[in-house]
Amino acid sequence: MTDPTALRPDLLPVAVVEEIDSLFTTAVTEHRTAGVTWGVVGGHDHGDVLLAHGAAGHRELRNGEPTAASTPMDRGTISRICSMTKSFTAATILALRDEGRLRLDDPITEHVPEAAGIRLPSDSPQITLRHLLTMSAGFVTDNPWGDRQQPISREQFADILAGSLGFVHLPGTGFEYSNTGYSLLGRVIDEITGEDFGAHITARILRPLGLTSTGFAREEVDASRTATGHRLADRADATRFEPLPFDAHGVYGAMAGLFSSVDDVAAWTRFLAAADAPDAADHDQSVLSTASRREMQQLHRIQHTPALPSTGGKASAGFDRIRGYGYGLVIEEFPDLGEIVSHSGGFPGYGSFMAWHRDTGLGIVALANSKYAPAVPLSMQALRLLRERCPELLAARVPTLMPRTREAAQAALDWLRHAPALAPGEQPADSDAAQRATAIADAWFAENMDPDVPRDERARRRDQALAAAGVDAAALTTLRLEDAQVLSPAQLQWRVPGTVDGKQLQIMMLMDPRRQCQIQQLDLAAVDA
């Protein structure tokens, strides 16, 4: 075991780092993995690539003991990152798209001639690059078969395609995880660039980003730092870890072939996560544009998750998350964590995971050297521990109001304070307050406002909502823009505590979609607190 390191104790206290480390070291002592190295990745507001790191276990075990050449897992350990490779393949496809060398809706046969051997189901559209990127080509899921195809040649792959592939649904109609689909994307890179996909990804992405501990072949990385993969035998102690030989680089490497380190994967996650940073437009666009990185991280294909069990009635309690696939990345919305972008990796001998919180960019990386090691549950536990212990590090991003919305909000509050509530047919008094309310409405109410609810009625509804919530009209005079909850750059709401049991006053304001926008909604209601 190595001591965990809090690189930024001002942000991540030593006690929290030790708690996270305990999650990973326990997995080693309980023989769930031979070794693991992990890191907490700095977010948008941090200059540091890593805020903390730790490791446990050894790079190679035999008969339950470290081999003579083995050293403990540490920050510099290089491990196979498995299916996290797919994000690099997807990024390269998008970069070629940005250069006009392909289109995402191109049929795969346009770029890979041997793909013509895939016999499509009847009444089927052509399989496109977009289908392959989003796991919606309809191919049968090929874990763990695909893992064993890693070293095959282009010719052997062509033979597989000539025999055609099986389908579980029509292209473009569902999600089904496919390693073969991403291997086809690797062949697209081969054909378009005229070089091996691994060499092209290395030159286009790895080296420009300084990922010097990352490569597609074991010969491309430091062998003295590389962790051996282990299969899990049918024993419960450390003797269950049996070392495996390294696979050669081949066609299926486009889906799971990369070796890398915690620092390099952390740098990659920061590069991707930066697309959602507040200053994203100022970042270097040379490797891959901000727009394309952001496109990778959108939910393009829903991935169905099982419903939660019933809580006593006949209906399910719902789902624990929304989950879907982007381009080489998984996007999930959790009730407690918010939106998490990630990808896991499982491969003979290895398990890996990278994930980051979209709003803050803070993330976690874990690389382990046992088949299907529990990198995902350990990392998600670590993120939840961070959410509990250091909530400011994973705080939800508050939208920034458009300047025009700020002006409108001040005007809306002014109208609510001064608009007279007239009975039907009653003539307004020629008062300064009435004239002020009229001028505000003329300037700021969009064309739909008066036909939807006439101004006199809108003022009466205001008073009815105040009474229903038990809020004195004087409360409106002290209400400020800063008291509002910002829902979007064009929408906000105020909540004012009421005196009627369980009620509060809600004020909703929404701008219209024009550049010189006006108020299209200004509603008051007494709602449950």
Word description of this protein:
This protein has 529 residues and is α+β, with helices and mostly antiparallel strands. The chain has helices spanning 14-29, 85-98, 129-133, 154-162, 179-193, 197-206, 253-256, 262-273, 290-296, 375-389, 403-418, 432-444, 449-452, 455-469, 475-478; strands spanning 5-6, 35-41, 50-57, 61-62, 65-66, 78-80, 230-232, 241-243, 259-261, 301-302, 322-325, 330-334, 338-347, 350-357, 363-368, 485-488, 491-497, 503-511, 519-528. Strands 1-3-2-15-14-13-12-11-10 form a 9-stranded antiparallel beta sheet, sandwiched between helices. The chain has a 4-stranded antiparallel beta sheet with strand order 16-17-18-19. Strand 4 and strand 5 form a beta hairpin. Helix 1 (14-29) runs antiparallel to helix 10 and helix 11 packs antiparallel against helix 12 (432-444). It is elongated and about 95 Å long. The two termini are 51 Å apart.
Strand and helix layout:
Layout: E1 5-6, H1 14-29, E2 35-41, E3 50-57, E4 61-62, E5 65-66, E6 78-80, H2 85-98, H3 129-133, H4 154-162, H5 179-193, H6 197-206, E7 230-232, E8 241-243, H7 253-256, E9 259-261, H8 262-273, H9 290-296, E10 301-302, E11 322-325, E12 330-334, E13 338-347, E14 350-357, E15 363-368, H10 375-389, H11 403-418, H12 432-444, H13 449-452, H14 455-469, H15 475-478, E16 485-488, E17 491-497, E18 503-511, E19 519-528
Antiparallel strand pairs: 1-3, 2-3, 2-15, 4-5, 6-9, 7-8, 10-11, 11-12, 12-13, 13-14, 14-15, 16-17, 17-18, 18-19
Helix pairs in contact: 1-10, 2-5, 11-12
